[in-house]
Structures are given as structure tokens and as C-alpha cells.
Write a structure and sequence with these properties.
With 389 residues, the chain is of the alpha/beta class. It has helices at residues 51-65, 91-99, 108-115, 171-184, 226-247, 266-280, 300-304, 331-350, 355-363, 370-380, and strands spanning 9-14, 21-27, 31-32, 45-46, 77-83, 123-125, 128-130, 138-143, 146-155, 196-203, 214-223, 250-257, 285-293, 309-310, 313-315, 317-318, 327-328, 382-387. Strands 1-5-2-6-14 form a five-stranded mixed beta sheet, with helices on both faces. A five-stranded antiparallel beta sheet has the order 10-11-9-12-18. Strand 16 and strand 17 (327-328) form a beta hairpin. It binds zinc ion (2 copies). One zinc ion is lined by residues 31, 49, 87, 322.
Length: 389
């Protein structure tokens, strides 16, 4: 299947029955880092998060698993997914696609869940690269932050910036005040929540000689769980209003459902870890507590609320993630080894009549059903308008 959630792809290899089906996922997208040596001219898109290595792993595992000899001994099926738009960027463009009816949820896996692409999947795995030291280790366990996305328009009035600034309503000043107000909240953030609030101005005005009449802000509120996110979201939205009120401009806050925290499934991790040790050596695995969050977010989090899922890392990159020096330095470590581990994990899960896959599935307690997920994420999408007068 192609063009799921615009550019997503799904392929299934059936060994025996349709179930159980184990999915291997690779993410299709990049980040905009124009200073990166591999950045695409024009867009600045660069593999500063290493997602290209995931697609290499996907191909590698598929080559290994697609040999005819595996048809007899394995039960069930394996599914290969290339999922788009995990990096939750260019929000205004995604909102325009939503407006045009092309998508409903704004990330690849979110939308693929909604469309039913994962309905026949029993469990899923994705290995992400990391630049942590030492190289050549698999990091399992841990969690990720949940988040919520803001796309905010401050709407003022244009006027000659030299001749009649008093006739204008300066949307940039309103946005500046809002950002300052957000910064005043930081001392209230609680360490246990691992709160992150960050944003960019995606439009700061139109021409320097005209009072900025429209300014847009794209931001995130992240936290350990959705309660922690929502607590800070309420304060941040007050800050947007404070900026609009001080300047007397109009405000439109679009709240977009971001990602849910990652729930790595210990039973699936165990099968992965056994294969990582067999292939890369006993000392190749680093385990993190399941409640330790790195601060970032992923839409594997959303999928992991519904089915058993794991999102281990492989330390095979150098530099700072999302920075201009993030590079895969060793493709054997970054692609070949994880591909072998993923393929071997599928073989273990589906061998012996699919006994291990059945055990993983049996022990898993989903946090919600797909219908509950779609409903709650749909409800989190809202538009609030406010008049600062
Ligand atoms: Zn990333
Ligand atoms: Zn990434």
C-alpha cells in the first residue's frame, strides 16, 4: 500500500497466517538544519536525526526475512512501514492540508493509525540512531515526553511605521510580550514533569516600513505525561492572551494534538535484547529505567498506547541531534547491525508457532483503544479566538 497519510508505505510478507503480524518501522523524514553539510539546497532539509538509517534497517531486515526458506518455519506475517512526518514541523503547512481535507491528524503515524494502517498489526519496532557514547550500543527502555503544539496568530493593524505608527496595532510587540510572559513562568515548572516550552516566530511581519499586522508563532509544550503538558498549556495560553491584551490586538490560538508518551513494552524488549546480545556482543545493551524520559517526543508514543511497541536506540552517530554536525559515522553499526537484530527478533517472535509473539501480546495492557485514541486526539484539536481590548 502506498500514499497512506500522503507519502506513507506499507508492505506485508505473509509467512503463514495473517496473524500474528510484527511490524518494523522506518521514518521517512528529515529536519530543517540549513547549516548541515548534507542539507538540501532551498529547503535546508538534512538527516540531522538519522531517519535515513531507519530506512536502511527496514530494507536490510526485509532482505534477510524475505528468503523463501522462512516460509515453512515461521507463523504469521511481517509488515514493513515507511512512515512520514514524525518531526512535527511546518505546522501551518500541515494545517492547510488538514483544511483542504487531505489529512486529519498532523503526523504520519497518528494519521496512519486513524486510517487503520495498524489495525492488523500485533506489535511494532523501530530503532533510532543516537550520538551517545560509547558507539555500537543498543539502548533499550526509557520513555519520551508527550507534547502539544501551538500555532498562534497575533493579528494587529498595518500603518506607516515612520509616519503613523500610532495608527497601527503592532502584532510583533504582542508576540514579544507573550514570549516574555512565557519565560516568566519557567520558575513554576516542576522538575518531575520534565517540562519543555519552546517556539519560533514563523512570521515576524511583512515589510519593515509597515507596522507588523500579522505575526505567527509555532510552539510546543512538552511534559512527562498529558496532565503535566495540560497544566503548562493553560499557563502558556494565558501568556498569549497577555501579549494580545497589552497591545490590543486579536489572537487566534490553534491547539494541535501532539504526541503521547512512549510506553516501551518490556516483553518485546526482552526478545530484542537477547538478539542484540547474540549479534553485537553481551556488553552491547544499555538498559534505561522505563520512566526515564529524554525530553524529546515521538509518534511511536501514540502507537505504543495501543499495541506493544519498542523504540530502542543504537549509538552510531556523532554530533548533536537536530544540530548541524549530526552525522552517521559507521553505517555497519547504524544500519546493518540493527537490521540483523530486527530480523532475528521477528524470527524469534514468529518461530515455534508464534509462541513468543502470543506471549508478548497476552501480557500487554493497552492504555486505550484505537477509537478512544482517535476521539481524544480529535478533541484536543481546537481553535480559540480572543480579542485583546
Ligand atoms: Zn528528530
Ligand atoms: Zn528522530
Amino acid at each position: 500500500m502506498r500514499k497512506i497519510a500522503v507519502t506513507g508505505v506499507k508492505a506485508v510478507r505473509r509467512f503463514a497466517a495473517a496473524s500474528p503480524t510484527v511490524a518494523i518501522i522506518g521514518e521517512l523524514d528529515a529536519v530543517r538544519v540549513p547549516g548541515h553539510p548534507g542539507a538540501r539546497p532551498g529547503t535546508g532539509a538534512a538527516h540531522a536525526c538519522g531517519h535515513h538509517a531507519q530506512l536502511g534497517m527496514l530494507y536490510g531486515a526485509a532482505i534477510g526475512l524475505n528468503i523463501p526458506e522462512l516460509s515453512g518455519p515461521l507463523a504469521g506475517s511481517v509488515a514493513y512501514f515507511a512512515t512520514p512526518a514524525e518531526e512535527f514541523i511546518d505546522v501551518a503547512r500541515r494545517l492547510a492540508r488538514r483544511e483542504a481535507g487531505e489529512i486529519q491528524f498532523l503526523s504520519g503515524k497518528q494519521e496512519m493509525i486513524r486510517l487503520g494502517a495498524f489495525d492488523d498489526i500485533d506489535m511494532a519496532m523501530l530503532v533510532h540512531t543516537s550520538s551517545e557514547e560509547p558507539a555500537g550500543r543498543f539502548i533499550v527502555g526509557g520513555t519520551s515526553n508527550g507534547h502539544l503544539v501551538h500555532n498562534v496568530r497575533f493579528i494587529g493593524r498595518a500603518a506607516h511605521a515612520g509616519g503613523a505608527p500610532h495608527d497601527g496595532i503592532n502584532a510583533l510587540q504582542a508576540a514579544s510580550l507573550a514570549i516574555m510572559a512565557i519565560n516568566t513562568q519557567r520558575e513554576t515548572f516542576e522538575e518531575k514533569d520534565v517540562t519543555r516550552v519552546h517556539g519560533i516566530l514563523t512570521k515576524g511581519g511583512t515589510s519593515v516600513n509597515s507596522v507588523p499586522a500579522e505575526v505567527t508563532y509555532e510552539g510546543r509544550v512538552r511534559g512527562r505525561d498529558i496532565a503535566a503538558v495540560d497544566k503548562v498549556v493553560a499557563r502558556v495560553e494565558r501568556c498569549f492572551k497577555a501579549g494580545a491584551l497589552a497591545i490590543g490586538c486579536d489572537l487566534e490560538i490553534t491547539t494541535v494534538p501532539g504526541y503521547l508518551p512512549l510506553r516501551n513494552e518490556p516483553g518485546l524488549d526482552d526478545v530484542f535484547v537477547a538478539n542484540a546480545r547474540a549479534i553485537a556482543g553481551h556488553g552491547s545493551v544499555i538498559s534505561q529505567p522505563y520512566d526515564e524520559t529524554r525530553g524529546g517526543s515521538t509518534d511511536m508514543g501514540d502507537l505504543s498506547q495501543l499495541i506493544p511497541a519498542i523504540h530502542p536506540y543504537v549509538t552510531a552517530a556523532k554530533g548533536v541531534a537536530h544540530g548541524d554536525d549530526y552525522q552517521i559515522v559507521d553505517y555497519d553499526l547504524a544500519v546493518i547491525q540493527p537490521a540483523r537484530v530486527l530480523a532475528a527478533t521477528v524470527i524469534d517472535l514468529l518461530g515455534d508457532g508464534g509462541r513468543l509473539a502470543a506471549e508478548v501480546r497476552q501480557r500487554h495492557r493497552p492504555a486505550m483503544t484505537k477509537a478512544e485514541y482517535v476521539r481524544s486526539q480529535s478533541e484536543r484539536h481546537r481553535v480559540v479566538r480572543y480579542k485583546g481590548e
